[in-house]
Design brief:
Blueprint lengths: L1 E10 L2 E14 L2 E6 L4 H10 L4 E4 L2 H10 L1 E6 H7 L7 E5 L5 E3 L5 H4 L5 H10 L13 E5 L14 E5 H7 L6 H5 L18 H11 L2 E7 L2
Parallel strand pairs: 4-5, 7-10
Antiparallel strand pairs: 1-2, 1-5, 2-3, 2-10, 3-6, 6-7, 8-9
């Protein structure tokens, strides 16, 4: 068994990364996620199905090398717990439209607000043809979270769609995933996982499964 991390950037003393996680608890509107142990062989095979490779980290030397080259890293349990405890912390998370989770400490203030106004709101209405995506009404247009705000959904253009007041009230906090498609949005899968894949059905399935357990966060490098 091992911990796995996708190191995306290392700068300013911080490591920005994604890690495979599991649910621990709900807190307010957020979900608390904790890094998970994975079966090394099975995880390596799953990465290969998406055209991805991983480094193995079990020493200071291999850790330093990984910090330079980035990408996926499989970290031995002993080394992670002794030398990388800051990578294993639990975090309160928003739920992304891509199915993954975002540590609230790295989310922009606007993402944590309940709604958008002004030009940001107008851009979403224009994207959706200035009409309600459910009934096509052009009157009394509002914005609706597809992943509800009350359940930790992001407030941004990838999770907001145009509905009229009536359809908004009718839907309330229910989730209608079809709204993503109607707005021309991709949901439930982080496409960056497929950048080196052949886009096969197997690769897409793997990426979707990965996305639903990924947490994006940051920590001190040392």
């Amino acid at each position: 068994m091992a911990y796995v991390f996708e190191l995306k950037q290392a700068c300013g003393g911080y490591a920005y990364f994604a890690t495979f996680t599991h649910f621990e608890a709900s807190k307010s509107t957020y979900e608390v996620r904790v890094p998970s142990l994975v079966d090394e062989k099975r995880f390596e095979h799953a990465l290969a199905d998406m055209g991805l490779k991983t480094s193995y980290i079990d020493s200071d030397a291999s850790y330093r090398q990984w910090l330079h080259f980035h990408g996926w890293g499989m970290v031995s349990v002993e080394f992670a717990r002794e030398a990388m405890p800051q990578w294993l912390r639990k975090h309160q998370c928003l739920r992304s439209a891509l199915g993954s989770f975002i540590d609230v400490s790295i989310a922009s203030p606007g993402t944590l607000k309940r709604t958008l106004r002004g030009k940001q709101k107008q851009r979403i209405h224009e994207r959706d043809g200035n009409r309600c995506l459910r009934c096509s009404s052009c009157e009394n247009l509002t914005l609706q979270h597809v992943q509800p705000f009350s359940r930790g959904g992001e407030t941004n253009s990838s999770n907001l769609v145009t509905l009229c007041e009536g359809c908004n009230q009718d839907l309330r906090d229910e989730i209608d995933i079809e709204l993503y498609e109607l707005a021309g949005l991709r949901s439930g899968v982080d496409l960056s996982l497929l950048k080196l894949s052949d886009w096969s059905d197997l690769a897409l399935m793997r990426a979707r499964n990965f996305s639903h357990n990924l947490m994006h966060t940051r920590c001190d490098m040392w």
